[in-house]
Every structure is written in structure tokens, then in C-alpha cells.
Write a structure and sequence with these properties.
The complex is a heterodimer of chains A (112) and B (114). With 112 residues, chain A is mostly beta strands. Chain A is built from no helices and 11 strands. In chain A, the strands form 2 sheets. In chain A, strands 2, 4, 5, 9, 10 and 11 form a 6-stranded mixed beta sheet that branches. The radius of gyration of chain A is 14 Å and the shape is globular. In chain B, strands 2, 4, 5, 6, 9, 10 and 11 form a 7-stranded mixed beta sheet that branches. A 4-stranded antiparallel beta sheet of chain B has the order 1-3-8-7, with no helix packed on it. Classes of the chains: A mainly beta (112), B mainly beta (114).
């Protein structure tokens, strides 16, 4: 059974203070690792897909990286609007059978 | 149009009621999903429809009954629910031209069972 563990559970940063969120996973064979952002009372919003160790993806102030055992979401010079819960998931690569297993998330708060 | 629309946004029902949650997308996606999310917990997969056929049922109790009338619509019929079924129910869709794992989620229907 796939397992995903995220740390820390919550993180408070000052605006502009860079940091990283961690996602550790245990799977029988990694098909894909996905990062989502979820705002309170909303559905998750897709950010990145990573498939193989060494892969990196970037979007604005966010950069996701992948090793054989974990993924990091680096946030550089964050702004208050980056405050959200960031969810990591592992799952399938076969369209129509994406059984994503989500971690419990990191609740990020950026203080102005 | 990159939206998944869910109705109603809020629903309160008694344990003997029958109600339905509805989900609609017009992105041409051919896979649609129901997830359940409790407070401060991750989303948990319930059902997946692929090309209007049920492809995954995560051993969900029969008091939840999914239906996919066509490629744009997904329903979740609710009957004889328990208070512990209170949660945010999220619908999502994905398309073959998108990356695997790239799901588009709606804002959810918040269900309270009294």
C-alpha cells in the first residue's frame, strides 16, 4: 500500500523567508509524484508532476524536486498569497485510473 | 473554461433522507472522480469513472451510489447516511491530453448529516 508522509504539519514564515516542505513516500513502484495546493474551503489545485529522481519543476516562487525516497517543495521569497495547504500525492500514470494517495499536507502561513 | 462545478455547495440532511450531489465539467475530460475529505485530513478517493464506466470503487458503502449519465456529468446519490459521513465531497476530472495525476477539482459540496 502506498504511503505518503509530509512534514512539517504547519509552517509559519515571514514574507520573503525561503524554506522547504518535505514529502516522503513508500510505494511498490513510483508511477508519479504530484504536488497540489489547497486553499481553505476549496478543492486542491494541481501544481506539479514529477516522475523520476533528479527531476525538477518550477512555477513562480515554487520549485519541486524528487529523489528516490522523497520530494521537496522549495518556496523562495514567499508572499502572503502563497499561504495555503500544500498536498503531496503519489499515484498512477494510466489515464482514467489515477488512484492518487495524498499526504496530510503542510499548512503554510506567510506573515506580511 | 477550466472549471468543475459542484452543486449544492452546502447540504444538510437527516439520516433517512435521500439527496444527490452533482458535478459538471465542460473541458472534454473523460475521467471523473469523487473524493471525500474530512477536516484537516487529505482527500480520499471514493470512485473513478473512465469513459462513463465505473473503473474504481474504493470499497465505498452502498449508501453512496455514483452515476455518470454522460461524459460531462457525475452524480453521487446519498441515502441513509450516518453522521460520520459528514465531510467535504470533492469532484474532479482529468483528460487524456493532460498529465497523469493532473486532476481539476471543484470547490466541493459540504455535507452535514444530522
Amino acid at each position: 500500500e502506498d504511503q505518503v508522509t509530509q512534514s512539517p504539519e504547519a509552517l509559519r514564515l515571514q514574507e520573503g523567508e525561503s524554506s522547504s516542505l518535505n514529502c516522503s513516500y513508500t510505494v511498490s513502484g513510483l508511477r508519479g509524484l504530484f504536488w497540489y495546493r489547497q486553499d481553505p474551503g476549496k478543492g486542491p489545485e494541481f501544481l506539479f508532476t514529477l516522475y523520476s529522481a533528479g527531476e525538477e519543476k518550477e512555477k513562480e516562487r515554487l520549485k519541486a524536486t524528487l529523489t528516490k525516497k522523497e520530494s521537496f517543495l522549495h518556496i523562495t521569497a514567499p508572499k502572503p498569497e502563497d499561504s495555503a495547504t500544500y498536498l503531496c500525492a503519489v499515484g498512477g500514470r494510466t489515464f482514467g485510473n489515477e488512484k492518487l494517495t495524498f499526504g496530510t499536507g503542510t499548512r503554510l502561513t506567510i506573515i506580511p | 473554461d477550466t472549471e468543475v462545478t459542484q452543486t449544492p455547495k452546502h447540504l444538510v440532511m437527516g439520516m433517512t433522507n435521500k439527496k444527490s450531489l452533482k458535478c459538471e465539467q465542460h473541458m472534454g475530460h473523460r475521467a471523473m472522480y469523487w473524493y471525500k475529505q474530512k477536516a484537516k485530513k487529505p482527500p480520499e478517493l471514493m470512485f473513478v469513472y473512465s469513459y462513463e464506466k465505473l473503473s474504481i470503487n474504493e470499497s465505498v458503502p452502498s449508501r453512496f451510489s455514483p452515476e455518470c449519465p454522460n461524459s460531462s456529468l457525475l452524480n453521487l446519490h446519498l441515502h441513509a447516511l450516518q453522521p460520520e459521513d459528514s465531510a467535504l465531497y470533492l469532484c474532479a476530472s482529468s483528460g487524456p491530453l493532460r498529465q497523469p495525476g493532473e486532476l481539476f477539482f471543484g470547490e466541493g459540496s459540504r455535507l452535514t448529516v444530522l
